[in-house]
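In the previous chapter we treated chains in isolation. Here, by contrast, the input contains two separate entities that must be folded as one system, with a combined length of 225 residues.
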Amino acid sequence: MTDPNEPLPDFSDVQGGSSSTAPKPQERTYTVVKGDSLSKIAKTLLGSAGKWKVIYEANKDIIKNPDLIYPGQVLRIPQV
Amino acid sequence: MRHHFLHRAAAAAAVLSVVAAGCKKAPPPPPAAPPPAPVTVASVDLGKQLGPDTRVVQAMTTFGVRDTIYASVATTGSATSAVLTAMWTFQTGQKVDSTATTIAPTGPAQTEFHIVKASPWPKGKYKVAIWLDGQVAGEKEFEVK
């Protein structure tokens, strides 16, 4: 029986990971041109502007601010 | 004269063979390959040690407070992209960890998920749910003693 007054255990120091024998899907790349935004690229390549976050998450190492991308940047486009 | 006859016979034979070839029925096209089977989760096993094939060395459901806990997920089928997620929860429903990985299997495959905690695991019951493309595809309960 769990005591409702008992503090919840702390799982903040848990680290998870994974690996697989299956190959990873092939990623496309896209070179940013003038006038592009993540949502515009997402709509063109992933079919929905709302999927901009998928591109952002896959490129966090080179995109510091999702509202600022620059012509010439090469973005990884994951398969969704 | 004999030469002429031989030439004519050869020419006639050639024409006949061309005509015969023209009448031959084209072989039927090979049957279309069946569509590849979609990815499904075949089994989920828990353990505290992995073998080189990404399977747990010994399946178990009870762990110690210092153990690394592995969930080895066997899948069958193929896909150009499938998202496997392991959602680990404590007995209270509290989320312990969630890890997702995208795979493109071409047949049977093994995917392992693991959790490790710097401080000892709270004793109690836990559950790992394996999601495949947004649907629960397998679950396993375990206990930390």
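The first strand of chain B starts at residue 40 and ends at 47. The mean pLDDT of chain B is 86. Compare these points with the single-chain example from earlier in the chapter.
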